[in-house]
Amino acid sequence: MAALLTSAVAPSFAETTAAELPEVFSDGDDAKKERVDGLNHVRYLEIYLAAPNPETGKIVAACYNTAIVASNIPEDKDTCPQKLVEGLDFEKMKKEYEVVAASLNGLKLWMLDWTQVENGVTREFNGIKGS
Q1: From CA 118, how far away is CA 89, in angstroms rounded?
Q2: Could you say which DSSP state residue 23 is in?
Q3: What does pTM read for this prediction?
Q4: How far is CA 34 from CA 41, 71, 118, in A?
Q5: Residues with Cβ within 8 Å of residue 109, at least 6 apart in sequence
Q6: Type and span of the H or E element at 9
Q7: N or C terminus of the chain: which is more exposed, having fewer CB within 10 Å?
Q8: 3-state SS track over 86-116
């Protein structure tokens, strides 16, 4: 699920405003509605890739959740093994996806049994899949 989040922007970000958002911001364009069952106690994280919106200068972020892709939930319910989490390289992500910031939200456990979301492109971050 590529979600967009907005926040106030620091002057240094406003100065780096690009003519258009990086490619990752179109990951949700052809999103398909999907029900994901069996989420209770699934370990997950979210990765945010942020860039300035060229129209407003405010920072927006694409969000990739590791648990909302049904095919991504293993038997042990850990969608983000600690060894892979420790190897996440946020500087590399910034360069690869042409964003000004990359960050981690989590690690967390789902309390819901299921959810229905619109899933777009699934990306892989050091072996961790997120959509």
Answers
A1: 27
A2: G
A3: 0.80
A4: 19, 11, 6
A5: 41, 42, 43, 44
A6: none
A7: N
A8: HCCCHHHHHHHHCCCEEEEEEEEECCCCEEE
Structure tokens at 32: 């398909």
Amino acid occupying residue 31: A
Enumerate residue ranges in the chain where pLDDT < 70.
1-18, 70
Single-letter code of the amino acid located at 84: L
- Give start and end residues of each alpha helix (H) in the chain: 11-15, 82-86, 90-97
pLDDT at 70: 67
C-alpha Rg value of the chain to the nearest Å: 15
Tell me if 43 sits within 8 A of 109, measured CB to CB.
Answer: yes
Q: Do 38 and 113 touch, CB atoms closer than 8 A?
A: yes
CA distance 58 to 54: 8
CB-based contact 44:66 (threshold 8 Å): yes
Q: Classify each residue of 15-27 as buried b or exposed e, where b means 16 or more C-beta atoms within 10 Å of its C-beta.
A: eebeeebbebbeb
Element (H, E) at 125: strand 123-125
